[in-house]
Structures are given as C-alpha cells and as structure tokens.
Amino acid sequence: MEEKAALLQNDVVVIGLLISILYFIFYLENSGGNLWQRFFKFFPPILLCYFLPGILNSLGVISGESSQVYPVVSRYLLPPCLLLFTLSLDLQMLKKLGIKAVLVFLAGTLGVILGGPIAVYLVKMINPESFNAETWKGLSTIAGSWIGGGANQTAVKEVLMPSVDLFSQSVAVDILMAEGWLAVLLLGIANKDRLNRFFGGDARLIDEIRDKIAAEAESKSKNPAFIDLMKILAVGFGGTAIAYLCSDAITPFISENYPEMAKFSMTSGFFWVVVIVTLIGIILSQTKVREIEYTGASKIATVFLYILIASIGMQMNLVAIRDNPYLFLVGFIWILIHALFVIIAGKLLKVPYFFVAVGSQANVGGAASASVVAAAYHPALISVGVILSVLGYAVGTYAGFLTAQLLRIASGF
C-alpha cells in the first residue's frame, strides 16, 4: 500500500514551521506565568522540542522520511554546533573548580560508560527477545546524550544509523530517565544542608567560586557586533570545512586498507568529521579564538542544537515507543548505576552536594539541565554547569563510541 503524502511537502515550509514551534516553546517557558511554570515542570522544553514535531509526523502533517530537512541540518549544523560548544572549554576555570569537581564529573561519565553494558547484560538475562543485532545502536545514542548532550547523541546516531523506530524508543528512554533523575537532584537541593553533611563537603567553597565567576562574567561579556557574529560563523563553519576535507582523505584510505575497521565505525566519513571537529574545538579553546564565547558563540550553537532536535523529532515514530518496554528497564538500571558512581565519588572525595548534582547533570542532561541545577543554588553559578557540560561535549562523542562498542559486546553481537 502506498504511503499517504504529507500535508506539508515543501521543506522551506517545514523548516519554518519547526523554528516557529521552537520559538513558541521557549516564549511560553520565559513568559513567567505560574501556569506555564507548572506545565514545564512536568513537560520540559526539550521534551516538547522532540515530541511536537513527532506528533506532526505521526498525524501526516509533515514527513520525516521524505523530507530532506534532517539530512541537511545534521550535515551542516551539527559539526559547527559541536565545535562552538567545545570551544568554550575553559581549563583555567576547571582549575578553579578543583580536581575534585572534575573527578566527580568523570565518575559520572564512567558510570554511563559501564552502566549501559551492565544494564543490557542484566535485562538480556530476563528477556533476551528484547534485543536484536541492531538494538545496541539505538541504545548507543543514549550514551552520547548522557555523556555530552543532544549534539553528541546525533553524532553517534549519524554514524551508527539505528532504525527510526529504534531511535524513537531510545529517545523516549533517554528523556524519561534523564528528566526523572533531574527531579531527584533538584529535590536534593531543597535538602542541601543535610546532604552536605552526608558528603562531608565544605559549602563555603561554592560561595567563593560564585563570587569569582560573577566578577569575571561582568568584566568580559559584551553585546556582539556584526563582525563578532560573522567571526563566530567563520570559526564554526571554517572548522567544519577543515573536518570534512580531512575526512574525505582519511575515510577512503581506511576503507581500502583496513576494511575490518568498519565494525568500529572508522570507515564512516561522518565519524571522522565529528572526531576532527571536536578536536579542533578543543585546540581552539586554548587560544584567543575562545574569546568569541563572550560574544555569544555558545548561544548560536544552542540555536543550531534545538533546530537539530526538532528535525530529529520530525522523524520519530511515536507508536514505536510502546513496542519494547524492556528498554525502559535498561534505562532505569543504567541511570541507577550512574547515580551510584557519582554518589560514591562525592562521598569519597568529600565534596559539597553542588558538585555531585551539577557533575551528574553535566553528563546526563547537558548544559541546559546542568545550568538549571546550578541556578537553583545561585544564578552566578550557571557557568559552572556550562563549563562541566562543555567538558562533556568534548569527551561525549568519543566516550559515546566507546560505550557503543561495549553495548555491542554486551548484546552478544
């Protein structure tokens, strides 16, 4: 039977619709009304950015399968998005935070890397029918999301290419578990004094960091001029061009001489684009180029990211989410293992609860959720969440691919 054509088939109309949806989501979130504040507590903006386009796709208003929006957005906006996020990596600020904050963050990363394969192994013993030769590919995108963020998740997706149904299920697991864990962490902030005593951390350190960050932000930030915006785009897309040039040389060489590396995704051109563009971002973050962060580099990257999220959403098959409930059990065990890692690290290192909560969300939730947790302490601390999240962007893609291979092994394929 021939598939019914979508109501809107012009991609210019589709991209305009998606960006308008994004605007209204964030407009309502920032409107300040009590009703909308309560609404977004239960339905966070990122959830709507995924699922509203998915609903339109399911209703036949738009078609993720026939549209070229996602292929274009993922190829043209994802690499500069990764580069601009990674560019804001501030090693000096990481030093100010101290090695303990970074170690708690890395403990959370390790919890994601090991937690996924352990969860798959346990659930497979309960119900092996829930896993096939492709399931690990969808679950790997969760690893990209929980170590870095949406951009890293898409990078892993583009390399491994899980089916639309499998990716839809994985996104649902990702959001449900990540937002549930965020709620737990925010509840902990309401009891931060008791938790600080449990972890044995000195909360005065947080006050000192808050004051230093507030002073630095006030002295360096400025409103961007036209030339500043052009420089941001030149760095983002120029770095992307270099990454594609290098990928075009590396991929044929490996495919021809080392075809066995295909199972590790090293014969994928986009794999090398992502690896190289992230490396460029890390290198540039140690130069004066990183000063474009003070004129809005990460804000432009965030715009790219949410356009990307909406284009992913329009490919989702919402009906497929109910087809494999055991994947939600995988996600639940996975997030518990991550939580165990950060709690043990926080206890052993005797850090304030702030570092446990923000370090965890810098992994699982990315910059947006880590900023929410940090802001619950004080708005001046938002940059702490962002800085640790940028560290996640820097390692998220690499760690995501490592986790993918562990998931493949745990799945028995």
Mean pLDDT: 82
Q: Please give the share of residues in helix.
A: over 70%
- Global geometry: globular
- Calculate Rg over CA atoms: 21 Å
Amino-to-carboxy terminus distance? 34 Å
Task: Please summarize the sheet with the most strands.
Answer: none
Oligomer: single chain
Strand content: under 5%
The chain-level structural class is mainly alpha
- Counting structural domains, the number is 1
How many beta strands in the DSSP annotation? 0
Low-confidence stretches: none
Number of helices: 19
Element order: H for helix, E for strand: HHHHHHHHHHHHHHHHHHH
Structure, described:
There is one protein chain. By secondary structure, the protein is an all-alpha fold. The protein has one domain. The chain has 19 helices and no strands. Helix 9 packs parallel to helix 19 (382-411), helix 10 runs parallel beside helix 16 and helix 18 packs across helix 19. The longest helix is centred in the middle third of the chain and has 32 residues, at 226-257. The protein is globular and about 60 Å long. The model has no long low-confidence stretch (mean pLDDT 82).
Features:
mainly alpha; globular
Write the layout of secondary structure elements.
Elements: H1 11-29, H2 34-42, H3 45-58, H4 69-76, H5 78-87, H6 91-97, H7 99-126, H8 135-147, H9 150-160, H10 164-189, H11 192-199, H12 204-220, H13 226-257, H14 269-284, H15 297-313, H16 326-349, H17 353-364, H18 366-377, H19 382-411
Helix pairs in contact: 1-3, 1-15, 3-15, 4-15, 5-9, 5-13, 5-14, 5-15, 5-19, 7-8, 7-16, 7-17, 7-19, 8-9, 8-10, 8-19, 9-14, 9-19, 10-16, 10-17, 10-18, 13-14, 14-19, 16-17, 17-18, 17-19, 18-19
